[in-house]
Structure formats: structure tokens, C-alpha cells
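User: My instructor asked us to take a sequence, write out its structure as C-alpha cells, and then describe one feature of it. I'm not sure where to start. Here is the sequence I was given:
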Amino acid sequence: FDPIWARPEPSGRRAPHSRADIAEAAIAVADAEGIDAVSMRRVARELGLGTMSLYHYVRGKDELIDLMSDAILGGQLVDNAELRKGWRPALRAIAVATRRNFERHPWILGALQPRPRAVPGPNSLRHFDQSVGAVADLDVDVKTKMEIVTLIDDYVFGFSLRAYLAGLEQRVEQEEPGWVQAVFDYMAVELE
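Assistant: Let's start with the prediction itself. The C-alpha cells for your sequence are:
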């Protein structure tokens, strides 16, 4: 197993695009039409490639999602000046950037699924590095620092996921009026 990040970027005549181009095209499709519209065939078409040509860059949709999510994570990196303002302002800046990033690309919350062989990409590692760097000077042990970073990340991710799911529920209610009330009625009976 060699993760996409460990393999050299394809280049030369057979590779007229970069992985960044692929991620950008796939993100544009997902932003416009949702993650379900993203396929190898669709992204290849957006880039003017044959579907099989896309496999020169990525081995399948899992790697395509990896490219997309890492590109999106680049949007939540903060300026180094923010990190020098102290641990609280730094973590706040990271949290705000993360939340805004999820607001720009809410579908990513539904696309991110834990996979046993998922490997963090460069932007994911930079985000982690910034988060750990924000608490580096705190006078607490490493375990506590990691718990603080995890707490903030989990809170922002959970808040963003809840907002994403609320949006999905609103869409379902518009398509099937009464659905939400039916769920509440069911829950009331079960709770009784």
C-alpha cells in the first residue's frame, strides 16, 4: 500500500493536469451539485480527459475524495501571525477558519468517512501542526495539550455536522412535507 501522498505527482505528456487541478474540478462539481454528482467519469469530463486518463492520477474514488478533502483542508489554514497571538486567539482563529471552510463546502461533512487505510494529506498535517503549535507554549503536559486541540476540533466538526444535517432535513421536509413531524410523532410515542 502506498498512499497517494507518497507517490510522485504524475508529469509529462501523459499528465497534462496536476492533482490540484483534479481536486479543484471535483470540488467545483460537488459545490455546484453535491458530492453525489462527483464521479471519476464526471471529473475527467470536466478536465477534458478520458475517464481512464484520470486513473493515471488517482486509483479510484477514495483517492479522489482524499484529494478533495485535503484541498479543502487547505482553506482552514490560518496565517502564522494569528498563531503568534497566544493559544486562545490562535485556537479561535483555527476554529473560525474551520467552521467557515465547512460552510463553503458543507457536502464534505457527508463525504468524509473513516476508512482503515486513510492517510492524512499535506494540508491535514499542516492543520494539525498549526493546532498543536497553538498550544505548544502552554504549561501543561502533552496529553492535556492534545485533549485541548481535540476538544476544539471535535466541537467545530460536530457543530458543522449538525448544521449540515439540519440543512438536509430542511431539504427532505421541502420534498416530503410532514416528514419531520412524522419523525417527532414517532419519537413521542417511543418516549412515552
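For the description part of your assignment, you could build on this observation: The chain has a mean pLDDT of 91. Try explaining in your own words what that tells you about the chain.
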